[in-house]
Amino acid sequence: MNAISPITAASDTAPLRDFVTRLAELIDISRHQHEVLATGSALLARLIARDDWLPAAFAVPSPERYQQYLLHCDSRERFSVVSFVWGPGQATPVHDHRVWGLVGVLRGAERVQRYVRLEDGAVVPAGDAVLLEAGKVEAVGPDIGDIHRVANGRDDGPSVSIHVYGGNIGVVERATYATDGTPKRFISGYANTVLPNIWDRS
Ligand code: FE
Question: pTM higher than 0.70, yes or no?
């Protein structure tokens, strides 16, 4: 009998490596944030146009709450890339980011409701909720609308989205908002302690 254990198929993470390399170059040469958002959106759209590169460990839902897995953080913490994994019915609280963000749906769908903070402090919905299907990209940030609530857009299974932020989002001090607009200090952290190895080219 053959004693050699079967080779576990690993994801080819080259698309993620290519994405973070190009995004770092883009940030190097961009003079304005809108350039990063415009070209970064196109890069993210290309990344999520295929669904064969995300290692399975970073797409595992939890029955407790949505999961935020760090996939990559720039060595100078200029940006981070995470996978959000939503079980059925799971949603974030209403929250802000304090840095620019790009939201791309890899699997399933994500329901996004934007909010605005009025001068009296109230936080109210801005427009209707939008259902982002796989392949779609949306931007958030202090200059373009920074408060939203995100939920799984599917009732019958998990959804996975890839988010990119203009900082190490897990350590950014930001806020969630109660229905009356009261902010609450929020530092998200990450669900994982190890990262995908995107650098092995063997
Ligand atoms: Fe968000």
Answer: yes
